[in-house]
Amino acid sequence: MTMTPPPSTPDYPPNTPTQAVFGMRRAAEVAGVSVSTLRRNKELLQAHGAVIAAEGWQVPLSALVASGLMRRTTPPEASTAPPQEVQEAGTARDPVALTEAQERIRELEREALELRFRAEKAEAIAQERGSALEAERMALRMLTTGPPTAPAEPDPETTSAPVSPPPAPEQTGPEPEPVRQSWWRRTFG
Fold first, then answer.
1. Nearest Cα residue to 51 out of 72, 120, 62
2. Residues near 33 by beta carbon (within 8 Å), at least 6 away in sequence
3. In this structure, are residues 38 and 30 in contact, taking their beta carbons and an 8 Å threshold?
4. 97 and 53 together in one domain
5. 56 with 89, same domain?
6. What Rg value do the Cα atoms of the chain yield, rounded?
7. Is position 79 within any domain?
8. Does the pLDDT value for residue 145 go beyond 60?
9. Closest CA to 66 of 36, 35, 41
10. Cβ-contact 38, 26 below 8 angstroms
């Protein structure tokens, strides 16, 4: 009895997609991101199987998901075993990789510090603009509310006898000249 080998499946190279492949614009539509976001994440997409050539981009769906660019999806969980590169970088056998990793950590810390500073600055600006807006709202309220209106008919209880003006002191000198009307009043008045 001879055993026949099972039908062989094609051997795909690592990270070769066996599913839908999109061009750059279509991949951006499918992922729900802009084309510039794909361009910024070019290296990440290439690491997950995207092919970027002069003829155009070929971005598999698996690369979009694995890179975390797909909306409403998360990249697959990383395996618990660290990749070979990380294991070697963590040992004393590779001081160059260790130095590069330390420099990258310093760079990321500087970037995080800069982003924190920018966020605090943006919050301060937003708070200042909010207080200025509140002051403008209050001023607008003060302008739109007119003076209190007097009642149409005075209350008979609150009204009293009309007050006569005090008598004018007698003048002993020449009589003052009457106030002259303006040219406008004299002409059109």
1. 62
2. 69, 71
3. no
4. no
5. no
6. 42
7. no
8. yes
9. 41
10. no
Give the residue numbers spanning the domain of 129. Answer: 84-144
Provide the pairing of β-strand 21-22 with 51-53. Answer: unpaired
Q: What pLDDT does residue 75 have?
A: 54
User: Do 100 and 57 share a domain, yes or no?
Assistant: no
pLDDT band at 111 (very low <50, low <70, confident <90, very high): very high
State what percent of residues in the chain have pLDDT above 70: 62
**Which of 13-27, 48-62, 175-189 bottoms out in mean pLDDT, i.e. has the lowest?**
13-27
* Residue indicated by tokens 């008919």: 153
For residues 58 and 50, the answer to whether their CB atoms sit within 8 Å is yes
What do you get for the CA distance between the two ends of the chain, in Å? 131
The pLDDT of residue 17 is: 45
* Domain count along the chain: 2
Q: What is the DSSP letter of 153?
A: S
Q: Within this chain, do residues 105 and 60 fall inside the same structural domain, yes or no?
A: no
pLDDT at 64: 84
C-alpha to C-alpha distances, 121 to 113, 115, 126, nearest whole angstrom: 12, 10, 9
Q: What is the pLDDT of residues 169-187, one digit of tens each?
A: 666 667 777 788 888 888 8
